[in-house]
Write a structure and sequence with these properties.
This protein has 305 residues and is an alpha+beta fold. It is 28% helix and 27% strand.
Length: 305
C-alpha cells in the first residue's frame, strides 16, 4: 500500500500594457469562457459531504492545536515590497518575490478549447519573479476582475457564489469545493485550512487546494494557496493563486506505487492527504502561509470619484 503523504517592475519603472486595454475589452465582450466548468464550480461548492465534514472537523481541531504549539516559531524575515498600479495596491514580503509586473489581459479560450490559467475575460494581472516554488507549472499571480467586465461571462457565476458564501458565513470546512477563479478545466480534489479573510477593501476566503483527480499520487508541486475576494462595493473580484513548495507529498511516487491498483484506494488516499494538509505546520510550506495571508489582507482598491 502506498505510504501516506508525509510588464512593470517594483525595482524599476512601472510599465503596463494600458494601450491594449480597449482592444482587450472588445475581445472580452465578444467571447465567453466554457459553460460547464463554472457551473460545476458553482454546484459543487454547495455540496456538503458528511464524511469529509467530520474528517475536516477532527483535523481542523488538531491543526489548531498544532499551530498553537508552533506559534512562537519565527517566519523567515524579509523586506517589504509596495505594489501600486492605477486603483490597485498591496504589499508583500521579499520571501515571496522581489519583482513584479502587471498588465491587462483579455484572451478567451479558442473555440472548443478548455479554459485555463492562461485564458479569460478582461482582467488586471500581477505576476511575480524570483518565486521560491520552482517545481510548479502554475505561475504565482494576482488577478483583479472588474465585475462589470465579467457580468456576461461564466466568471460572474463564481463571483455570485462567493458573495453568497460570504453573506452566509457558514464554516468553510462544510464544503467539498469553494469558489475559484480563474475558471479551469479541473476539479478541486482537496480543500484544506480554509478560512475567511478581511482585506483592506472587502472580504474573501483563503484555502489550500489540490486540483485534479487522484488517479496518481500527488506530488511536491500539487498544493496551491488561493485567496478569492470581493470588494465591499461588489465592483471588483480578486483572485490570487500561489503554488506552494511543500514536503507533504514526495517529488517522486513511493517505490511501492502501483498505477494499476492505486485508483482502487483513491478515496482513502484523498482523505489521508487532506488530513496531512490540515495538520501541516506553517514550516511545511514555501512561501509561508502567513506571508501570503499578509499579502491578501493588504490588497486595496480605490477608484477615483
Amino acid at each position: 500500500m502506498e505510504a501516506a503523504p508525509a510588464a512593470a517592475d517594483s525595482g524599476a519603472e512601472s510599465t503596463a500594457d494600458e494601450t491594449s486595454t480597449d482592444e482587450a475589452a472588445g475581445e472580452a465582450a465578444a467571447d465567453t469562457t466554457a459553460e460547464d466548468p463554472a457551473s460545476a464550480n458553482a454546484e459543487s461548492a454547495e455540496t456538503n459531504d458528511t464524511a469529509e465534514t467530520n474528517a475536516a472537523a477532527e483535523t481542523n481541531a488538531a491543526a489548531e492545536t498544532d499551530e498553537a504549539a508552533l506559534a512562537e516559531e519565527p517566519d523567515p524575515v524579509g523586506g517589504l515590497v509596495d505594489v501600486a498600479f492605477q486603483h490597485v495596491s498591496f504589499t508583500y514580503d521579499t520571501t515571496i518575490a522581489h519583482n513584479w509586473t502587471v498588465e491587462y489581459l483579455a484572451n478567451p479560450p479558442d473555440e472548443g478549447a478548455a479554459p485555463s490559467f492562461y485564458s479569460g475575460p478582461l482582467r488586471m494581472v500581477f505576476r511575480f519573479s524570483d518565486y521560491p516554488a520552482p517545481l510548479s507549472n502554475v505561475e504565482p499571480v494576482v488577478y483583479v476582475y472588474r465585475i462589470a467586465d465579467i457580468s456576461s461571462q461564466n466568471e460572474y457565476k463564481v463571483a455570485n457564489l462567493l458573495g453568497a458564501l460570504l453573506a452566509k458565513g457558514a464554516p468553510l470546512s462544510n464544503y467539498k469545493s469553494l469558489p475559484f477563479l480563474p475558471i479551469i478545466d479541473a476539479e478541486q480534489s482537496i480543500i484544506a485550512q480554509p478560512k475567511y479573510v478581511q482585506f483592506q477593501s472587502g472580504s474573501g476566503i483563503r484555502y489550500l487546494t489540490v486540483v485534479g483527480d487522484a488517479s496518481q499520487p500527488f506530488g511536491a508541486d500539487s498544493v496551491w494557496y488561493t485567496f478569492q475576494g470581493l470588494t465591499s462595493d461588489n465592483k471588483f473580484y480578486i483572485a490570487a493563486v500561489f503554488p506552494l513548495a511543500s514536503n507533504i507529498f514526495p517529488e517522486q511516487p513511493e517505490p511501492d506505487y502501483n498505477p494499476e491498483t492505486f485508483g482502487d484506494r483513491s478515496d482513502e488516499y484523498i482523505l489521508l492527504s487532506k488530513a496531512a494538509l490540515n495538520l501541516a505546520p506553517r514550516s511545511a510550506f514555501t512561501p509561508r502561509l502567513s506571508r501570503l495571508d499578509a499579502l491578501a489582507e493588504s490588497i486595496q482598491i480605490v477608484e477615483e470619484q
